[in-house]
Write a structure and sequence with these properties.
The chain has 304 residues and is an alpha+beta fold. Helix 1 runs antiparallel to helix 9 and helix 7 runs antiparallel to helix 8.
Length: 304
Amino acid sequence: MSVTRRLLASGVVGATVLLTAAVTTGTASAHGSLYGPVSRVATCYAEGPEHPQSQVCKDLVAMSGTQPLYDWNEVNIANANGQHQQLIPDGKLCSANRDKYKALDMARTDWPDTGVQSGSFTFNFRVTAPHQGLMKLYITKPGYDPTKPLKWADLDLANPVAEYPTSRTATNGYYTFSGNLPGRTGRQLLYLVWQRNDSPEAFYGCSDVTYGQGTTAAATGLQSLSAPSAPTEQQIAAGYTRSTVDHQGHGGDHQAAAAQGSAAVPLPAGSTGSLVLGGSALAAVAASAVFVYRRRPGALSHSS
């Protein structure tokens, strides 16, 4: 085989390997956070990691720094595999037992809360990387005391307020689904568990709500008490370079998540578009290199 043919074959094979690797790792991992009612971590990120407004978010930054807020869409356990209660001890539910997010477990009554009433409720989850799985939302039992660390026994695990099978696509970057809030009074907490069914990875979140407030809660399902806000698309895009969230080790790609987060456009099934493009570009570079080599004066063409 001539040297030129060897180079051509090597370039094609190498580009094919790179393209295959890119496509293989291109399936985006599931990331995101509840926007309605807004989760604790999303609320504090929306306030601004560098200049939070509420005292509780200021205390979060003082305790754990700003990184947990820039990584607002990654309160997870990579190898949960449905073993949520075994892996997360009492008092550490909101952080998923991760030291990075430990400030989310602070037991206090000044977390920004959303006003709700009993009955039908529409939930919104901002997805930065959709994936197949099952999302469950639980609410605290009557008598819940927000000044004490949250325990599994505080949650009504037998009666989820919502269960939603998630898919590989998310309309406009959101999962939107209905549930039913039971009768409660005063401040309560919603706890989210999102278990992927194609991976052992799971995601978690805490959202604070208060019953009996707001006149439009029954009609809209959402009424702000202390004005908790979700991050805007501009905030997501602006904070992307500060995020340490990538999807290495559990399927996914930082670039794909960035595109999803800044544009709020659902990734296609398989979520491989950005990396397929990257692989195609690599193949083009390899082919171009071989072409340039063949055009060089005096290029070797001896047979083996």
